[in-house]
Amino acid sequence: MRHRLLVPGAAALSLLLAIPASAASFTPGAPGAGDSYYPESGNGGYDVSHYDLRLKYQPKTDLLEGTATLLAKTTQDLSRFNLDFGLKVSEVRVDGAKAKFAATGAHELEITPAAPLERGKQISVVVRYAGKPSEVKIGGYTAWARTPDGGVAAQEPDSAVWWYPSNDHPTDKATYDISVSVPDGTQAISNGVLASQTSKLGWTRFNWRSDKPQATYLTTLAIGKFDVTTGTTENGTPVLNAVSKDLGANEGAARASIERTAEVTGWLESVYGRYPFNAVGGYVPNVPAGYALETQTRPFYGKKAFDRGANVSVVVHELAHQWYGDSVSLKDWKDIWINEGFAAYAQWLWSEKEGEGTAQELADYVFDQHPADDPFWTVKPGDPGPDNQFDGAVYDRGAVALQALRNKLGDKVFFGLLKSWPQEHAYGNASVADFVKFAEKKSGKPLADFFDTWLFQPSKPSAGAARQALGARGTAPAPRPASWPKIAATHTIHQG
Ligand SMILES: [Zn+2]
Protein backbone atom coordinates (compact mmCIF):
# COMPACT_ATOMS: atom_id res chain seq x y z
CA MET A 1 0.00 0.00 0.00
CA ARG A 2 2.78 2.40 0.88
CA HIS A 3 4.04 2.83 -2.72
CA ARG A 4 0.70 4.28 -3.82
CA LEU A 5 1.36 7.25 -1.58
CA LEU A 6 4.54 8.01 -3.52
CA VAL A 7 2.73 8.79 -6.76
CA PRO A 8 3.81 12.38 -7.68
CA GLY A 9 1.26 15.17 -7.85
CA ALA A 10 -0.37 17.66 -5.54
CA ALA A 11 -3.30 15.41 -4.55
CA ALA A 12 -1.01 12.56 -3.61
CA LEU A 13 1.25 14.94 -1.69
CA SER A 14 -1.61 16.30 0.41
CA LEU A 15 -2.71 12.72 1.11
CA LEU A 16 0.82 11.94 2.21
CA LEU A 17 0.77 14.87 4.61
CA ALA A 18 -2.63 13.99 6.03
CA ILE A 19 -1.86 10.38 6.93
CA PRO A 20 0.95 9.43 9.31
CA ALA A 21 3.79 7.51 7.71
CA SER A 22 2.86 4.40 9.70
CA ALA A 23 -0.73 4.32 8.40
CA ALA A 24 0.04 1.57 5.96
CA SER A 25 0.68 -0.81 8.86
CA PHE A 26 -2.92 -0.50 10.10
CA THR A 27 -4.74 -3.62 8.94
CA PRO A 28 -8.01 -5.39 9.82
CA GLY A 29 -7.97 -7.83 12.74
CA ALA A 30 -8.45 -11.47 11.75
CA PRO A 31 -12.08 -12.72 11.70
CA GLY A 32 -11.05 -15.84 13.68
CA ALA A 33 -8.72 -16.68 16.56
CA GLY A 34 -7.02 -19.46 14.58
CA ASP A 35 -8.71 -22.46 16.25
CA SER A 36 -8.03 -25.70 14.39
CA TYR A 37 -11.63 -27.00 14.79
CA TYR A 38 -13.59 -23.72 14.67
CA PRO A 39 -11.66 -21.25 12.50
CA GLU A 40 -14.38 -18.57 12.72
CA SER A 41 -14.53 -18.56 16.54
CA GLY A 42 -13.00 -15.55 18.19
CA ASN A 43 -11.08 -12.80 16.42
CA GLY A 44 -7.59 -11.36 16.09
CA GLY A 45 -6.01 -8.03 16.92
CA TYR A 46 -7.07 -7.42 20.52
CA ASP A 47 -7.49 -9.00 23.98
CA VAL A 48 -10.55 -8.32 26.12
CA SER A 49 -9.93 -7.81 29.85
CA HIS A 50 -13.48 -7.04 31.05
CA TYR A 51 -17.11 -7.28 29.95
CA ASP A 52 -19.75 -5.03 31.50
CA LEU A 53 -23.17 -6.24 30.34
CA ARG A 54 -26.28 -4.23 31.18
CA LEU A 55 -29.33 -6.19 30.02
CA LYS A 56 -33.12 -6.16 30.17
CA TYR A 57 -35.17 -9.27 29.34
CA GLN A 58 -38.91 -9.73 28.94
CA PRO A 59 -39.83 -13.46 29.21
CA LYS A 60 -43.24 -12.95 27.56
CA THR A 61 -41.76 -11.76 24.28
CA ASP A 62 -38.15 -13.08 24.47
CA LEU A 63 -36.93 -9.52 23.84
CA LEU A 64 -33.39 -8.92 25.11
CA GLU A 65 -32.09 -5.35 25.14
CA GLY A 66 -28.51 -4.65 26.07
CA THR A 67 -25.55 -2.35 26.32
CA ALA A 68 -22.20 -4.14 26.39
CA THR A 69 -19.03 -2.30 27.35
CA LEU A 70 -15.83 -4.18 26.53
CA LEU A 71 -12.41 -3.12 27.80
CA ALA A 72 -9.62 -4.41 25.58
CA LYS A 73 -6.02 -3.90 24.53
CA THR A 74 -5.01 -3.94 20.89
CA THR A 75 -2.33 -6.46 19.88
CA GLN A 76 -1.65 -4.97 16.42
CA ASP A 77 -2.17 -1.72 14.54
CA LEU A 78 -5.88 -2.02 13.70
CA SER A 79 -7.82 -0.38 10.88
CA ARG A 80 -10.89 -2.35 11.99
CA PHE A 81 -11.74 -5.43 14.08
CA ASN A 82 -14.48 -8.01 14.61
CA LEU A 83 -16.65 -9.16 17.50
CA ASP A 84 -18.75 -12.34 17.39
CA PHE A 85 -22.44 -11.55 17.75
CA GLY A 86 -25.88 -12.52 16.41
CA LEU A 87 -28.40 -9.92 17.71
CA LYS A 88 -29.26 -6.65 15.93
CA VAL A 89 -26.94 -3.78 16.78
CA SER A 90 -28.07 -0.13 16.80
CA GLU A 91 -24.88 1.68 17.82
CA VAL A 92 -21.19 1.04 18.35
CA ARG A 93 -18.71 3.41 19.99
CA VAL A 94 -14.97 2.97 20.25
CA ASP A 95 -13.33 5.16 22.91
CA GLY A 96 -16.55 7.20 23.02
CA ALA A 97 -16.69 7.99 19.28
CA LYS A 98 -19.33 6.50 17.00
CA ALA A 99 -17.91 3.70 14.86
CA LYS A 100 -19.12 2.18 11.60
CA PHE A 101 -20.31 -1.41 11.86
CA ALA A 102 -21.64 -4.22 9.68
CA ALA A 103 -22.87 -7.76 10.22
CA THR A 104 -20.79 -10.14 8.08
CA GLY A 105 -20.16 -13.90 7.86
CA ALA A 106 -22.05 -16.34 10.09
CA HIS A 107 -21.78 -14.29 13.29
CA GLU A 108 -19.27 -11.48 12.76
CA LEU A 109 -19.78 -7.85 13.78
CA GLU A 110 -17.22 -5.85 11.80
CA ILE A 111 -16.31 -2.57 13.52
CA THR A 112 -14.46 0.30 11.88
CA PRO A 113 -13.47 2.94 14.44
CA ALA A 114 -13.46 6.64 13.47
CA ALA A 115 -9.64 6.63 13.72
CA PRO A 116 -7.30 3.63 13.39
CA LEU A 117 -6.06 2.08 16.65
CA GLU A 118 -2.39 1.74 17.47
CA ARG A 119 -0.99 -1.50 18.85
CA GLY A 120 -0.83 -1.73 22.65
CA LYS A 121 -3.65 0.79 23.17
CA GLN A 122 -6.31 0.34 25.88
CA ILE A 123 -9.71 0.74 24.24
CA SER A 124 -13.36 0.71 25.25
CA VAL A 125 -16.05 -0.61 22.93
CA VAL A 126 -19.73 0.05 23.61
CA VAL A 127 -22.34 -1.96 21.70
CA ARG A 128 -26.07 -1.21 22.00
CA TYR A 129 -28.39 -3.96 20.79
CA ALA A 130 -31.81 -5.59 20.97
CA GLY A 131 -33.45 -8.73 19.62
CA LYS A 132 -34.98 -12.12 20.31
CA PRO A 133 -32.20 -14.65 20.97
CA SER A 134 -34.45 -17.61 20.06
CA GLU A 135 -34.75 -16.16 16.54
CA VAL A 136 -30.98 -16.05 15.98
CA LYS A 137 -30.13 -19.15 13.94
CA ILE A 138 -26.57 -20.01 12.99
CA GLY A 139 -26.40 -22.98 10.66
CA GLY A 140 -30.07 -23.55 11.53
CA TYR A 141 -29.24 -23.82 15.22
CA THR A 142 -29.94 -21.72 18.31
CA ALA A 143 -28.07 -22.09 21.61
CA TRP A 144 -30.70 -20.04 23.44
CA ALA A 145 -33.28 -22.23 25.19
CA ARG A 146 -36.62 -20.54 25.86
CA THR A 147 -38.37 -21.92 28.93
CA PRO A 148 -42.01 -21.50 30.09
CA ASP A 149 -40.83 -18.68 32.42
CA GLY A 150 -37.72 -17.27 30.71
CA GLY A 151 -34.64 -18.35 28.78
CA VAL A 152 -31.20 -19.91 29.22
CA ALA A 153 -27.80 -19.54 27.54
CA ALA A 154 -25.59 -22.56 28.35
CA GLN A 155 -23.94 -24.36 25.45
CA GLU A 156 -20.53 -25.58 24.33
CA PRO A 157 -18.53 -24.59 22.35
CA ASP A 158 -20.64 -21.49 21.51
CA SER A 159 -23.37 -19.63 23.37
CA ALA A 160 -22.24 -16.02 23.72
CA VAL A 161 -23.27 -14.86 20.22
CA TRP A 162 -26.93 -15.31 21.23
CA TRP A 163 -26.79 -12.78 24.06
CA TYR A 164 -23.69 -10.57 24.09
CA PRO A 165 -20.92 -9.44 21.70
CA SER A 166 -17.53 -10.98 22.46
CA ASN A 167 -14.21 -12.34 21.34
CA ASP A 168 -15.68 -15.82 21.41
CA HIS A 169 -12.73 -18.16 22.02
CA PRO A 170 -11.44 -19.68 25.29
CA THR A 171 -7.99 -18.13 24.78
CA ASP A 172 -9.41 -14.65 25.44
CA LYS A 173 -10.70 -14.81 29.03
CA ALA A 174 -11.93 -11.77 30.95
CA THR A 175 -13.71 -10.67 34.13
CA TYR A 176 -17.44 -9.89 34.03
CA ASP A 177 -20.07 -7.65 35.58
CA ILE A 178 -23.46 -8.89 34.38
CA SER A 179 -26.48 -6.77 35.31
CA VAL A 180 -29.90 -8.06 34.25
CA SER A 181 -33.31 -6.43 34.71
CA VAL A 182 -36.35 -8.75 34.65
CA PRO A 183 -40.03 -8.37 35.67
CA ASP A 184 -40.61 -8.55 39.45
CA GLY A 185 -41.08 -12.16 40.60
CA THR A 186 -38.64 -13.45 37.99
CA GLN A 187 -34.93 -14.02 38.69
CA ALA A 188 -31.77 -13.71 36.62
CA ILE A 189 -29.03 -16.22 37.49
CA SER A 190 -25.48 -15.81 36.22
CA ASN A 191 -21.85 -16.42 37.22
CA GLY A 192 -20.03 -15.45 40.40
CA VAL A 193 -21.40 -13.46 43.30
CA LEU A 194 -24.76 -11.68 43.40
CA ALA A 195 -23.34 -8.28 44.33
CA SER A 196 -26.71 -6.54 44.63
CA GLN A 197 -30.39 -6.74 43.76
CA THR A 198 -32.78 -3.78 43.43
CA SER A 199 -36.43 -3.33 42.46
CA LYS A 200 -38.08 -0.36 40.76
CA LEU A 201 -41.34 0.19 38.86
CA GLY A 202 -42.09 -3.49 38.39
CA TRP A 203 -38.61 -4.57 37.35
CA THR A 204 -35.89 -6.25 39.45
CA ARG A 205 -32.22 -5.87 38.58
CA PHE A 206 -29.69 -8.57 39.50
CA ASN A 207 -25.98 -7.60 39.49
CA TRP A 208 -23.56 -10.53 39.16
CA ARG A 209 -19.76 -10.31 39.37
CA SER A 210 -17.02 -12.74 38.25
CA ASP A 211 -13.67 -11.35 39.35
CA LYS A 212 -11.42 -14.04 37.83
CA PRO A 213 -10.75 -14.67 34.12
CA GLN A 214 -13.71 -16.46 32.52
CA ALA A 215 -14.10 -17.89 29.01
CA THR A 216 -17.04 -16.71 26.89
CA TYR A 217 -18.67 -20.17 26.63
CA LEU A 218 -18.47 -20.53 30.42
CA THR A 219 -20.50 -17.34 30.89
CA THR A 220 -24.13 -18.17 31.48
CA LEU A 221 -27.50 -16.49 31.88
CA ALA A 222 -30.73 -18.04 33.12
CA ILE A 223 -33.97 -16.14 33.52
CA GLY A 224 -36.94 -17.76 35.23
CA LYS A 225 -38.55 -18.55 38.56
CA PHE A 226 -36.19 -20.37 40.89
CA ASP A 227 -35.95 -21.53 44.48
CA VAL A 228 -32.55 -20.23 45.61
CA THR A 229 -30.51 -21.62 48.51
CA THR A 230 -27.30 -20.06 49.84
CA GLY A 231 -24.51 -21.11 52.19
CA THR A 232 -20.73 -21.36 52.36
CA THR A 233 -18.17 -24.13 51.88
CA GLU A 234 -15.92 -25.15 54.77
CA ASN A 235 -13.26 -22.85 53.32
CA GLY A 236 -15.66 -19.90 53.20
CA THR A 237 -16.57 -19.79 49.49
CA PRO A 238 -20.16 -18.54 49.09
CA VAL A 239 -22.54 -21.14 47.63
CA LEU A 240 -25.66 -20.29 45.63
CA ASN A 241 -27.87 -22.97 44.09
CA ALA A 242 -31.00 -22.33 42.03
CA VAL A 243 -33.65 -24.88 41.12
CA SER A 244 -36.57 -24.02 38.84
CA LYS A 245 -39.98 -24.05 40.53
CA ASP A 246 -41.22 -25.86 37.44
CA LEU A 247 -39.37 -29.23 37.42
CA GLY A 248 -42.31 -31.45 38.35
CA ALA A 249 -41.28 -34.94 39.49
CA ASN A 250 -37.55 -34.19 38.95
CA GLU A 251 -37.43 -31.42 41.55
CA GLY A 252 -36.41 -33.59 44.53
CA ALA A 253 -33.70 -35.45 42.62
CA ALA A 254 -32.31 -32.22 41.18
CA ARG A 255 -32.17 -30.58 44.58
CA ALA A 256 -30.72 -33.69 46.28
CA SER A 257 -27.91 -33.61 43.69
CA ILE A 258 -26.90 -29.95 43.57
CA GLU A 259 -27.28 -29.46 47.33
CA ARG A 260 -24.17 -31.69 47.57
CA THR A 261 -22.17 -28.89 45.86
CA ALA A 262 -20.44 -27.56 49.01
CA GLU A 263 -19.46 -31.07 50.12
CA VAL A 264 -18.17 -32.06 46.67
CA THR A 265 -16.22 -28.79 46.36
CA GLY A 266 -14.53 -29.49 49.70
CA TRP A 267 -13.57 -33.01 48.59
CA LEU A 268 -12.25 -31.72 45.25
CA GLU A 269 -10.11 -29.19 47.14
CA SER A 270 -8.45 -32.12 48.91
CA VAL A 271 -7.53 -33.56 45.48
CA TYR A 272 -6.86 -30.43 43.37
CA GLY A 273 -6.01 -27.73 45.91
CA ARG A 274 -7.80 -24.50 46.79
CA TYR A 275 -10.99 -23.73 44.82
CA PRO A 276 -10.07 -21.04 42.27
CA PHE A 277 -13.13 -18.73 42.16
CA ASN A 278 -15.19 -16.28 44.27
CA ALA A 279 -18.36 -18.40 44.38
CA VAL A 280 -19.70 -21.88 43.69
CA GLY A 281 -23.11 -23.44 43.09
CA GLY A 282 -25.29 -24.80 40.34
CA TYR A 283 -28.65 -24.25 38.66
CA VAL A 284 -31.35 -26.45 37.17
CA PRO A 285 -33.72 -24.54 34.87
CA ASN A 286 -36.73 -26.07 33.17
CA VAL A 287 -34.80 -26.91 30.02
CA PRO A 288 -35.97 -30.20 28.48
CA ALA A 289 -32.39 -31.38 27.94
CA GLY A 290 -30.25 -33.99 29.61
CA TYR A 291 -26.82 -32.41 29.29
CA ALA A 292 -24.89 -30.48 31.90
CA LEU A 293 -22.21 -27.79 31.44
CA GLU A 294 -19.40 -26.50 33.66
CA THR A 295 -20.41 -22.81 33.42
CA GLN A 296 -17.93 -21.00 35.66
CA THR A 297 -18.74 -21.02 39.39
CA ARG A 298 -22.31 -22.09 38.58
CA PRO A 299 -22.72 -25.22 36.44
CA PHE A 300 -25.87 -25.74 34.39
CA TYR A 301 -27.79 -29.02 34.77
CA GLY A 302 -30.60 -29.86 32.32
CA LYS A 303 -33.80 -31.13 33.92
CA LYS A 304 -33.56 -34.56 32.26
CA ALA A 305 -30.20 -35.19 33.96
CA PHE A 306 -32.37 -36.18 36.94
CA ASP A 307 -34.94 -38.37 35.17
CA ARG A 308 -33.54 -41.46 36.89
CA GLY A 309 -33.12 -39.85 40.31
CA ALA A 310 -30.31 -37.97 42.01
CA ASN A 311 -26.87 -38.02 40.35
CA VAL A 312 -24.02 -36.66 42.47
CA SER A 313 -21.52 -38.03 39.94
CA VAL A 314 -22.54 -35.37 37.38
CA VAL A 315 -22.06 -32.70 40.06
CA VAL A 316 -18.55 -34.07 40.71
CA HIS A 317 -17.86 -33.89 36.95
CA GLU A 318 -18.99 -30.27 36.49
CA LEU A 319 -17.28 -29.04 39.65
CA ALA A 320 -14.00 -30.82 38.71
CA HIS A 321 -14.11 -28.68 35.56
CA GLN A 322 -13.79 -25.55 37.69
CA TRP A 323 -10.10 -26.51 38.01
CA TYR A 324 -9.78 -28.52 34.78
CA GLY A 325 -11.36 -26.50 31.97
CA ASP A 326 -12.41 -23.28 33.68
CA SER A 327 -9.38 -22.08 35.65
CA VAL A 328 -6.99 -23.93 33.30
CA SER A 329 -8.69 -23.62 29.91
CA LEU A 330 -7.80 -25.31 26.67
CA LYS A 331 -5.69 -23.46 24.07
CA ASP A 332 -7.49 -24.93 21.07
CA TRP A 333 -10.69 -27.00 20.95
CA LYS A 334 -8.59 -30.00 19.90
CA ASP A 335 -7.22 -30.00 23.48
CA ILE A 336 -10.62 -31.06 24.89
CA TRP A 337 -8.98 -33.95 26.83
CA ILE A 338 -7.47 -31.28 29.14
CA ASN A 339 -11.10 -30.71 30.23
CA GLU A 340 -13.00 -33.96 29.82
CA GLY A 341 -10.40 -36.63 30.60
CA PHE A 342 -9.83 -35.10 34.04
CA ALA A 343 -13.49 -34.33 34.81
CA ALA A 344 -14.37 -37.96 33.96
CA TYR A 345 -11.47 -39.22 36.09
CA ALA A 346 -12.74 -37.12 39.03
CA GLN A 347 -15.96 -39.18 38.87
CA TRP A 348 -13.84 -42.34 39.06
CA LEU A 349 -12.03 -41.00 42.13
CA TRP A 350 -15.37 -40.11 43.73
CA SER A 351 -16.57 -43.67 43.04
CA GLU A 352 -13.38 -44.98 44.67
CA LYS A 353 -13.98 -42.79 47.75
CA GLU A 354 -17.64 -43.83 47.98
CA GLY A 355 -16.74 -47.54 47.78
CA GLU A 356 -18.66 -48.02 44.50
CA GLY A 357 -15.71 -49.21 42.43
CA THR A 358 -12.08 -48.10 42.30
CA ALA A 359 -10.63 -46.12 39.39
CA GLN A 360 -8.64 -49.26 38.52
CA GLU A 361 -11.84 -51.35 38.38
CA LEU A 362 -13.48 -48.70 36.20
CA ALA A 363 -10.46 -48.60 33.87
CA ASP A 364 -10.47 -52.42 33.59
CA TYR A 365 -14.20 -52.39 32.89
CA VAL A 366 -13.94 -49.76 30.13
CA PHE A 367 -10.89 -51.44 28.58
CA ASP A 368 -12.51 -54.89 28.48
CA GLN A 369 -15.93 -53.61 27.44
CA HIS A 370 -14.66 -52.41 24.05
CA PRO A 371 -13.11 -55.08 21.78
CA ALA A 372 -10.29 -54.05 19.43
CA ASP A 373 -12.65 -53.62 16.45
CA ASP A 374 -15.02 -51.30 18.40
CA PRO A 375 -15.08 -47.82 16.76
CA PHE A 376 -14.57 -46.55 20.32
CA TRP A 377 -10.82 -47.00 19.83
CA THR A 378 -10.72 -45.01 16.58
CA VAL A 379 -11.44 -41.83 18.58
CA LYS A 380 -8.19 -40.20 19.69
CA PRO A 381 -8.86 -38.35 22.98
CA GLY A 382 -5.74 -36.22 22.39
CA ASP A 383 -7.17 -34.82 19.10
CA PRO A 384 -10.63 -36.31 18.42
CA GLY A 385 -11.69 -33.99 15.57
CA PRO A 386 -14.64 -31.57 15.72
CA ASP A 387 -17.24 -34.30 14.99
CA ASN A 388 -16.04 -36.50 17.85
CA GLN A 389 -15.16 -33.71 20.26
CA PHE A 390 -17.71 -34.82 22.84
CA ASP A 391 -17.71 -38.55 21.96
CA GLY A 392 -17.91 -40.92 24.93
CA ALA A 393 -14.39 -42.13 24.13
CA VAL A 394 -12.94 -38.68 24.95
CA TYR A 395 -14.32 -39.20 28.48
CA ASP A 396 -13.88 -42.97 29.02
CA ARG A 397 -10.70 -43.60 27.04
CA GLY A 398 -9.45 -40.25 28.33
CA ALA A 399 -9.93 -41.41 31.93
CA VAL A 400 -8.37 -44.85 31.22
CA ALA A 401 -5.26 -42.95 30.06
CA LEU A 402 -5.11 -41.19 33.45
CA GLN A 403 -5.43 -44.47 35.38
CA ALA A 404 -2.62 -45.88 33.20
CA LEU A 405 -0.53 -42.79 34.05
CA ARG A 406 -1.29 -43.24 37.76
CA ASN A 407 -0.01 -46.83 37.61
CA LYS A 408 3.08 -45.76 35.69
CA LEU A 409 4.05 -42.92 38.06
CA GLY A 410 2.70 -44.20 41.39
CA ASP A 411 0.11 -42.45 43.58
CA LYS A 412 2.49 -39.92 45.13
CA VAL A 413 3.73 -38.44 41.84
CA PHE A 414 0.34 -38.80 40.08
CA PHE A 415 -1.70 -37.02 42.77
CA GLY A 416 1.07 -34.42 42.99
CA LEU A 417 0.50 -33.76 39.27
CA LEU A 418 -3.28 -33.52 39.70
CA LYS A 419 -2.78 -30.83 42.33
CA SER A 420 0.13 -28.88 40.84
CA TRP A 421 -1.25 -28.58 37.27
CA PRO A 422 -4.22 -26.36 38.22
CA GLN A 423 -2.08 -24.40 40.69
CA GLU A 424 0.73 -23.69 38.24
CA HIS A 425 -1.56 -22.91 35.27
CA ALA A 426 -4.32 -21.13 37.22
CA TYR A 427 -6.48 -18.74 35.13
CA GLY A 428 -4.49 -19.54 31.97
CA ASN A 429 -4.67 -21.78 28.91
CA ALA A 430 -2.85 -25.02 28.19
CA SER A 431 -2.67 -27.79 25.57
CA VAL A 432 -2.42 -31.57 25.73
CA ALA A 433 1.22 -31.19 24.66
CA ASP A 434 1.77 -28.84 27.62
CA PHE A 435 0.42 -31.52 29.97
CA VAL A 436 2.71 -34.19 28.51
CA LYS A 437 5.73 -31.89 29.02
CA PHE A 438 4.53 -31.02 32.53
CA ALA A 439 4.16 -34.70 33.51
CA GLU A 440 7.63 -35.48 32.11
CA LYS A 441 9.19 -32.61 34.05
CA LYS A 442 7.47 -33.47 37.35
CA SER A 443 8.09 -37.24 37.12
CA GLY A 444 11.52 -37.14 35.47
CA LYS A 445 10.31 -39.86 33.06
CA PRO A 446 10.04 -39.77 29.26
CA LEU A 447 6.30 -40.08 28.55
CA ALA A 448 5.85 -39.17 24.86
CA ASP A 449 5.46 -42.81 23.71
CA PHE A 450 3.15 -43.59 26.62
CA PHE A 451 0.77 -40.70 25.81
CA ASP A 452 0.97 -41.55 22.10
CA THR A 453 -0.37 -45.05 22.86
CA TRP A 454 -3.14 -43.97 25.22
CA LEU A 455 -4.28 -40.66 23.66
CA PHE A 456 -3.17 -40.43 20.04
CA GLN A 457 -3.38 -43.86 18.35
CA PRO A 458 -6.67 -44.69 16.56
CA SER A 459 -6.56 -48.26 17.89
CA LYS A 460 -6.86 -50.27 21.10
CA PRO A 461 -3.57 -50.45 23.04
CA SER A 462 -2.02 -53.92 22.75
CA ALA A 463 -2.42 -56.62 25.40
CA GLY A 464 1.22 -56.02 26.34
CA ALA A 465 0.70 -52.25 26.75
CA ALA A 466 -2.42 -52.94 28.83
CA ARG A 467 -0.59 -55.42 31.07
CA GLN A 468 2.13 -52.86 31.63
CA ALA A 469 -0.21 -49.94 32.30
CA LEU A 470 -3.28 -51.53 33.88
CA GLY A 471 -1.78 -54.67 35.44
CA ALA A 472 -2.42 -58.40 34.97
CA ARG A 473 -5.46 -59.21 32.81
CA GLY A 474 -7.95 -61.95 33.69
CA THR A 475 -9.45 -64.20 31.04
CA ALA A 476 -13.03 -63.01 31.73
CA PRO A 477 -13.99 -59.34 31.11
CA ALA A 478 -13.79 -57.15 34.23
CA PRO A 479 -17.14 -56.84 36.08
CA ARG A 480 -19.21 -53.65 36.03
CA PRO A 481 -18.55 -51.38 39.05
CA ALA A 482 -21.65 -50.19 40.95
CA SER A 483 -20.97 -46.54 40.04
CA TRP A 484 -20.92 -47.17 36.28
CA PRO A 485 -24.58 -46.41 35.37
CA LYS A 486 -24.41 -42.89 36.89
CA ILE A 487 -20.99 -42.24 35.36
CA ALA A 488 -22.22 -43.43 31.95
CA ALA A 489 -25.33 -41.25 32.29
CA THR A 490 -23.05 -38.21 32.57
CA HIS A 491 -21.60 -38.97 29.12
CA THR A 492 -24.94 -39.12 27.39
CA ILE A 493 -25.75 -35.97 29.33
CA HIS A 494 -22.75 -34.30 27.71
CA GLN A 495 -23.56 -35.57 24.27
CA GLY A 496 -27.17 -34.38 24.60
ZN1 LIG B 1 -17.34 -32.30 31.00
Question: Which features does this protein show?
Answer:
496 residues; alpha+beta; Neutral Protease, domain 2; eight-stranded mixed β-sheet; 12 helices; 23 strands; 28% helix; globular; disordered N terminus; binds zinc ion
Question: What do these coordinates show?
Answer:
With 496 residues, the protein is an alpha+beta fold. It has a domain at 329-495: Orthogonal Bundle (Neutral Protease, domain 2), CATH 1.10.390. 28% of the residues lie in helices and 27% in strands. The N and C termini lie far apart (50 Å). Zinc ion is lined by residues 294, 317, 321, 339-340, 343, 494. It is an enzyme of class 3 (hydrolase). Belongs to the peptidase M1 family. It holds the Pfam family Peptidase_M1_N. This is Aminopeptidase N.
